[in-house]
């Protein structure tokens, strides 16, 4: 049994965002064989019940308040420009986390520091330095190839200033991401595509040497704990988007669907409603609700009523990386899905069997209309998607790959003794 220090940028519970789903089920897997201490940033809306739940799972939980302010953001921007760091990385250099990690390194002997997401990589390296006498192994779980995400957002951003900022961040992340992948002893990615995108940051001769430290392990869910929703017929046809609305790719995708796709849908089904469920929608998304057929809910603790009423679940993304957990979740709930190819990137799919793929506005509208007007197709996608996720994306089986990564790291140490 190893003692693992598990570092997260967001508290891994409740399961209301993709990163939390990855973190939580990874914790559930690791605690079966190891002792795990969790250190996580927390925010004002992270309730004590969530921390108590995680304490029942982990050996110990150390919440660290995420401190934000306008001055800190300005300082981070200046620091990023002077050092070449991505601005979001500079913004997360918070003294309170350093104090916590120094304290933990002083009283515990960790075998592995498991750092979740690139946004915590700085702290994973710091924790390793604080614990240097014990020489813990370091593992980085990359949820996305972040440099590629920013590059794609820059390519699709119409505003010149925002496009320039995103392009700058893409360049900064490319250098930072390469440095972190070199520094950690093992790297997890959630897709083979991201593994290849990250390796592409290195010269060919270095790629061959680094490739063996990368392992692709998908984000998984728990089919045993989630039942499929029961579709509730009646009322106007409803199209649902569910996802955090402070994430720029989600915002841009929702705006594209509402402005480019929905008018085509309304030509044939004028009563169709579009519902956007997700935390912190920006003003431009809130403004969509000026159309009475569009509803923007903000954060919803229990989305079940919306899932039950939905006739189509849309993933209209044109930028992204890693896996869109919303697709795996939607399969788990038994939802019929329409996605862009980028939206479904990195996920094992069967177009026309468990999902419909469409790249441009007319084809996306046609696919959505098929789900609104063809009950047989709608029902088939629901049942096939649920069966597919149970077979391919259950954490109880897929995360066994992580055991091999840990065995390789800890085996090296055993061989050195």
Distance between the termini: 16 Å
The major pleated sheet works out as: 7 strands, parallel
Unreliable residue runs: none
Range of strand content: 5-15%
Helical content class: 40-55%
Tell how many strands the DSSP assignment holds: 13
Given the C-alpha coordinates, what overall shape results? globular
**What is the count of DSSP helices, taking H or I runs of 4+ residues?**
18
- pLDDT averaged residue by residue: 92
Rg, alpha carbons: 22 Å
Structural class: alpha/beta
- Major beta sheet, strand line-up: 3-2-1-4-5-6-7
Q: Can you describe what's shown?
A:
There is one protein chain. Helix content is 50%, strand content 15%. By secondary structure, the chain is α/β, with parallel strands linked by helices. The strands form 2 sheets. It has a 7-stranded parallel beta sheet with strand order 3-2-1-4-5-6-7, sandwiched between helices. The protein has a 6-stranded parallel beta sheet with strand order 10-9-8-11-12-13, with helices on both faces. Strand 9 (273-277), helix 12 and strand 10 (294-298) form a beta-alpha-beta unit.
SSE map:
Blueprint: E1 3-8, H1 18-30, E2 35-42, H2 48-57, E3 60-65, H3 70-83, H4 87-91, H5 95-107, E4 112-116, H6 121-130, E5 137-142, H7 146-156, H8 160-183, E6 186-189, H9 192-199, H10 204-210, E7 214-216, E8 238-242, H11 248-268, E9 273-277, H12 283-286, E10 294-298, H13 304-309, E11 312-315, H14 325-333, E12 337-339, E13 356-357, H15 361-373, H16 375-392, H17 395-398, H18 400-416
Parallel strand pairs: 1-2, 1-4, 2-3, 4-5, 5-6, 6-7, 8-9, 8-11, 9-10, 11-12, 12-13
């Amino acid at each position: 049994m190893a003692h693992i220090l598990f570092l997260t940028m967001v508290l891994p519970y409740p399961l209301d965002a993709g990163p939390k789903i990855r973190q939580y089920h990874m914790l559930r897997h690791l605690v079966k064989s190891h002792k795990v201490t969790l250190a996580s940033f927390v925010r004002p809306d992270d309730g004590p019940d969530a921390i108590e739940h995680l304490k029942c799972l982990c050996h110990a939980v150390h919440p660290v308040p995420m401190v934000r302010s306008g001055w800190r953001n300005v300082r981070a921007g200046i620091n990023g420009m002077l050092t070449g760091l991505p601005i979001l990385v500079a913004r997360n250099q918070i003294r309170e986390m350093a104090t916590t990690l120094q304290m933990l390194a002083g009283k515990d002997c960790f075998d592995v520091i498991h750092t979740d997401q690139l946004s915590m990589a700085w702290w994973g390296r710091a924790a390793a330095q604080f614990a240097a006498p014990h020489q813990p192994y370091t593992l980085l779980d990359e949820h996305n190839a972040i440099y590629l995400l920013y590059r794609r957002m820059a390519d699709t951003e119409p505003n010149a200033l925002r496009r320039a900022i995103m392009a700058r961040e893409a360049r900064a992340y490319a250098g930072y991401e390469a440095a972190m992948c070199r520094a950690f002893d093992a790297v997890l990615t959630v897709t083979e595509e991201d593994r290849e995108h990250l390796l592409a940051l290195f010269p060919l001769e270095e790629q061959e040497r680094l490739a063996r430290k990368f392992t692709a392990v998908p984000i998984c869910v728990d089919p045993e704990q989630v039942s499929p929703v029961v579709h509730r017929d009646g009322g106007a046809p409803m199209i649902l988007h569910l996802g955090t609305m402070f994430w720029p790719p989600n915002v841009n995708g929702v705006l594209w669907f509402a402005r480019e796709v929905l008018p085509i849908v309304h030509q044939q089904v004028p009563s169709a409603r579009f519902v956007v469920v997700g935390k912190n929608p920006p003003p431009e998304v809130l403004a969509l609700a000026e159309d009475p057929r569009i509803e923007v809910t903000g954060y919803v603790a229990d989305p079940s009523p919306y899932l039950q009423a939905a006739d189509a679940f849309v993933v209209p993304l044109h930028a992204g990386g890693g896996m869109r957990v919303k697709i795996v979740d939607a399969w788990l709930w038994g939802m019929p899905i329409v996605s862009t190819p980028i939206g479904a990137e990195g996920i094992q799919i069967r177009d026309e069997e468990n999902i419909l793929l469409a790249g441009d506005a007319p084809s996306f509208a046609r696919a959505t209309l098929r789900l609104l007007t063809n009950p047989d197709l709608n029902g088939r996608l629901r049942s096939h998607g649920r069966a597919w996720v149970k077979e391919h994306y259950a954490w109880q089986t897929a995360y066994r790959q992580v055991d091999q990564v840990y065995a390789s790291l800890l085996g090296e140490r055993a061989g050195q003794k």
